[in-house]
Automatic annotation (TrEMBL):
Residues 127-221 form the Acyl-CoA oxidase/dehydrogenase middle domain. This is Acyl-CoA dehydrogenase. The keyword Glycoprotein does not apply. Pfam families: Acyl-CoA_dh_1, Acyl-CoA_dh_M, Acyl-CoA_dh_N. Residues 11-122 form the Acyl-CoA dehydrogenase/oxidase N-terminal domain. Belongs to the acyl-CoA dehydrogenase family. The keyword Metal-binding does not apply.
């Protein structure tokens, strides 16, 4: 092989980043993960540690004060944080989700105004697309934005908004022309402090309990017209383009949860003895571990492959199969994470079913990765449509 041929692998810098994030997560995030879950509270310790080490929004370009990390580096950060605490991994993941619409379609003024405080760790950014009656059918949203001079007035309610109430900024999709269907949807930046913005009580969830999920309620929220992201009517196109990039971050979260469960299970079976020897010596257990690790590595390689394509697309290159590979990695990684965490609980036996051990939390946390940012059933529809084009 020619030395000039790029290796199909993360660089040395990527691996150094992984080690840095893993050490930080083990020291500053993992010790609080069980309490965050038990108390259903925001992981402030994780936010503080990530901001202090400039790992809370690594994807923000250097021109706006960010680290300018590529998509693969962002995946690695999310993966390693999720290995310790899935709720905490939604800090870098949702900061990316909320800001990608601005990066893709926002004016230079909008980018400077909103990306700079996110890069500094002064604000977080959430994404508001779904509604109570518009989940998988996001184009069926009812939230309205009506032009009034040099302002828009927004009314509606957005559902399932991650980190709602904690984030300062929200990318909100709203209907500006109800006669045009999906082409009548526009995107806006809404601030938490805008008059008329409120939040419903936190949802009581199965997992990721440390990341607050709330409705964002908009009642006559009047915002300047220059807070529109891109041109009027392009919001839904921006929303779909955003998900092509950010489904990959959900795959990363799933990889991290699965890796955490596998690592814990491996440590356990080496120590736990039955019939006079470690249960890791039994072939049935070994086959389970081998299958877990094999499927995890397959999902990881597909996710990293997708991340490289995402990075190329963010730099303006046309990547025809980005939609397919981003759906594929999200779907595969989340299905694998669910299987691995269930197997980890099984390997721990009765202990795995108790909250004294972390694998039951990981199993609960893994489930949402099959649901949000497009259910895995929707991902399969997306992939099939790409194949049949």
């Amino acid at each position: 092989m020619s030395p000039d041929f790029p290796a199909y692998a993360p660089t040395e810098e990527h691996e150094m980043l992984r080690q840095t994030v893993r050490e930080l997560a083990d020291a500053k995030i993992a010790p609080f993960a069980a309490a965050v879950d038990e108390e259903s509270r925001f992981p402030q310790e994780a936010l503080d540690a990530l901001v202090q080490n400039e790992l809370h929004a690594v994807h923000v370009p250097e021109s706006y004060g960010g680290a300018g990390a590529d998509a693969l580096a962002t995946v690695i950060v999310i993966e390693e944080v999720a290995r310790a605490c899935a709720s905490s991994s939604l800090i870098p993941a949702v900061n990316k989700l909320g800001t990608v619409p601005v990066l893709l379609s926002g004016s230079e003024e909008l980018k400077k105004k909103y990306l700079t405080p996110v890069a500094k760790g002064e604000a977080m950014f959430s994404y508001a697309l779904s509604e109570a009656d518009a989940g998988s059918d996001a184009a069926g949203m009812k939230t309205r934005a009506v032009r009034d001079g040099d302002h828009y007035v927004l009314n509606g309610a957005k559902m399932w908004i991650t980190n709602a109430g904690v984030s300062e900024y929200y990318t909100v999709m709203a209907v500006t022309d109800p006669d045009k269907g999906a082409r009548g949807i526009s995107a806006f930046v809404v601030e938490k402090s805008d008059e008329g913005v409120s939040f419903a009580p936190k949802e009581k969830k199965l997992g990721i309990k440390g990341s607050p999920t709330r409705q964002v309620i908009l009642e006559n929220v009047r915002i300047p017209a220059d807070r529109m992201i891109g041109a009027e009517g392009t919001g839904f196109k921006t929303a779909l383009a955003t998900l092509d990039h950010t489904r990959i971050t959900i795959a990363a979260q799933a990889l991290g949860i699965a890796q955490g469960a596998l690592d814990y299970a491996v440590g356990y079976v080496k120590e736990r003895k039955q019939f006079g020897k470690p249960i890791g010596d039994f072939q049935g257990v070994q086959f389970m571990l081998a299958d877990m690790a094999m499927r995890l590595e397959g999902a990881r390689q597909l996710t990293y492959h997708a991340a490289i394509k995402s990075e190329r697309a963010m730099h303006g290159e046309t990547v025809p199969d980005l939609t397919f590979v981003s759906s594929a990695c999200k779907c595969l990684a989340s299905d694998v994470a669910m299987d691995i965490t269930v197997d980890a609980v099984q390997l721990l036996g009765g202990y795995g079913y108790t909250r004294e051990f972390p694998v039951e939390r990981m199993m609960r946390d893994a489930k949402i990765t099959q649901i949000y940012e497009g259910t895995n059933q929707i991902q399969r529809m997306v992939m099939a449509r790409q194949l049949l084009k």
